[in-house]
């Protein structure tokens, strides 16, 4: 198993450092410009999306009086640029604190985007599903390395790059998730998503090499996590 994982890590360096997304053909802009695009696109996303009855994200329709857009749910922006929205009446009581090295059981639909300016319209483009346990297995993902990579993985890596937490972890997601509390429910429980975390590219992988999670490069990609923490266990 270790050899397999290390092989994937080695392969990911080549893939993520030189491969571009098939649908990302826009010219590269400066980091400062990309950051501005990320910020503007995130704010637009908050204005154009809402929760359904189970907490899934859907398009906001102004004429639907049952909907409340994310922007009206007191989104919080962290110094890193990460934005999180707590879904009302969907949090555990009292819930359990989430530690930075905990083993999570995470139900999530997560989509990654590139924020671009097309014909003077800045918005998220090139959506790509990063994780969807709801439509997939229907049970939470266990101990995702993009939240906290195992120390044994770092210790056994053969390349210096693969020995770094930043090669695996999405820093902004890790930061914001600890603002929530975890449930303590079985994997088979029906989901009721807790909220949304929007991670701008600078708080994800930016333009750095990273582990090959999905077969595409996450260069300049922002992440939108729609999630529920079923359980958290100290490592």
UniProtKB/TrEMBL annotation:
PROSITE patterns, per the entry: PROKAR_LIPOPROTEIN
Protein name: Uncharacterized protein
Organism of this sequence: Kaistella flava (ex Peng et al. 2021)
Lineage: Bacteria, Pseudomonadati, Bacteroidota, Flavobacteriia, Flavobacteriales
């Amino acid at each position: 198993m270790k050899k397999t994982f290390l092989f994937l890590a080695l392969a990911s360096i080549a893939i993520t450092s030189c491969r571009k997304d098939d649908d990302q053909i826009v010219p590269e802009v400066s980091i400062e410009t990309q950051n501005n695009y990320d910020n503007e696109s995130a704010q637009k996303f908050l204005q154009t999306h809402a929760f359904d009855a189970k907490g899934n994200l859907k398009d906001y329709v102004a004429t639907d009086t049952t909907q409340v857009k994310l922007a009206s749910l007191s989104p919080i922006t962290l110094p890193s640029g990460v934005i999180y929205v707590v879904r009302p009446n969907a949090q555990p009581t009292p819930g359990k604190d989430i530690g930075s090295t905990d083993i999570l059981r995470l139900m999530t639909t997560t989509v990654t985007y590139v924020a671009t300016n097309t014909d003077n319209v800045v918005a998220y483009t090139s959506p790509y599903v990063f994780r969807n346990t709801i439509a997939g297995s229907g049970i939470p993902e266990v101990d995702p390395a993009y939240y906290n990579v195992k120390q044994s993985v770092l210790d056994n890596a053969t390349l210096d790059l693969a020995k770094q937490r930043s090669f695996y972890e999405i820093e902004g997601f890790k930061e914001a998730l600890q603002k929530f509390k975890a449930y303590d429910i079985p994997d088979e429980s029906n989901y009721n998503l807790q909220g949304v975390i929007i991670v701008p590219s600078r708080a994800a992988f930016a333009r750095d090499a990273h582990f090959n999670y999905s077969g595409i490069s996450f260069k300049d990609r922002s992440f939108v996590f729609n999630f529920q923490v079923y359980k958290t266990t100290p490592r």
